[in-house]
Amino acid sequence: MRLHVVTGKGGTGKTTVAASLALALAAGGRKVLLIEVEGRQGIAQLFDCPPLPYEERKVAVAPDGGDVFALAVDPEEAMLEYLEMFYNLRRAGKALNRLGLIDFATTIAPGLRDVLLTGKASEAVRRKDKKGRFIYDAVVMDAPPTGRISRFLNVNAEVAGLAKMGPIRHHADTVMKVLRSPETAVHFVTLLEEMPVQETVDGIADLRTLGLPVGGLMVNMVRQPILPEGDLAAALAGELDIEAIRMGVKAAGVEDDAAEIAQALAAEASDHARRSMLQERELARLADADVPRYELPLLSDGMDLAGLYEFAEELGRQGAA
């Protein structure tokens, strides 16, 4: 795969997973471009670097060598680039930009905006050096959320009312050729919770209807059971041996309030059992989607740069890169 589009419901860690995937793909000496299209500067925050301009900048060195470059795509700058590429009108475009007409155009025609954003990723995927070699081994796009991903990627339909022929239509056709290529994969990031899983299942179905390539499921913040299966069942049923827990608390050297602590531990075990049951139920729903699944653990200390590398290693180990 050369183009990896990463989507997910808000709050699932979509940008984090996209950045980790870029690191995993770059491992071993490869060169990867990570593209952000929502203007949130989430990539810069993750890699602890200044806000990204509309140019490709190196943001990280991957495990075992390899470079990750990043780009924050600005629709107005992309429009100027488009005008220069197809009409040789960059200077006129800057004048239009000062008048606010470019922002106006992309607002009243959101399909054009999406063509410009996806077009930048498409161009990066196809770009070659003078020797005919690809500049980037892979491109990762931190795409819009799951609820908007089908419309965002289906640029041909979005520009149908704007242009039947000409440069805009040709540009959209070129973008769609890349997006429908067997070298493209759209990955879904989800948590093991009802709403994110439902949006993921619906999003996969929508992409398949449109003939767009579905990649893998990146299941984030997976909590591993910390109790044996029998104890989980007992905790779920409220049948844990409170007296045995109290004795265990005392054996650990806690004499005061051992009974209250035992009750609190039993309640926490019950919550943990319910969470584990919910995870298993949602995993079963995801299994019906019939796509590769990769699981990323819940990091108790939160996400930081070290966590990105930990996730990258895990994705590589599971075969996502």
Quick description:
The chain has helices at 14-26, 42-46, 75-87, 90-98, 101-108, 110-126, 146-153, 155-158, 167-179, 194-210, 229-236, 242-251, 258-287, 305-317; strands spanning 3-8, 31-36, 57-61, 67-72, 138-142, 184-190, 214-222, 293-297. It has 321 residues and is α/β, with parallel strands linked by helices.
Write the layout of secondary structure elements.
Elements: E1 3-8, H1 14-26, E2 31-36, H2 42-46, E3 57-61, E4 67-72, H3 75-87, H4 90-98, H5 101-108, H6 110-126, E5 138-142, H7 146-153, H8 155-158, H9 167-179, E6 184-190, H10 194-210, E7 214-222, H11 229-236, H12 242-251, H13 258-287, E8 293-297, H14 305-317
Parallel strand pairs: 1-5, 1-6, 2-4, 2-5, 6-7, 7-8
Antiparallel strand pairs: 3-4
Word description of this protein:
There is one protein chain. This protein has about 325 residues and is of the alpha/beta class. It folds into 2 domains: about 5-225 and about 300-315, Rossmann fold; about 230-270, no CATH class. About 50% of the residues lie in helices and about 15% in strands. It is built from 14 helices and 8 strands. The chain has helices at about 15-25, 40-45, 75-85, 90-100, 100-110, 110-125, 145-155, 155-160, 165-180, 195-210, 230-235, 240-250, 260-285, 305-315; strands at about 5-10, 30-35, 55-60, 65-70, 140, 185-190, 215-220, 295. The protein has an 8-stranded mixed β-sheet, with helices on both faces. α1 packs across α14, α5 crosses α6 and α11 (about 230-235) crosses α13. The protein starts with a strand and ends with a helix.
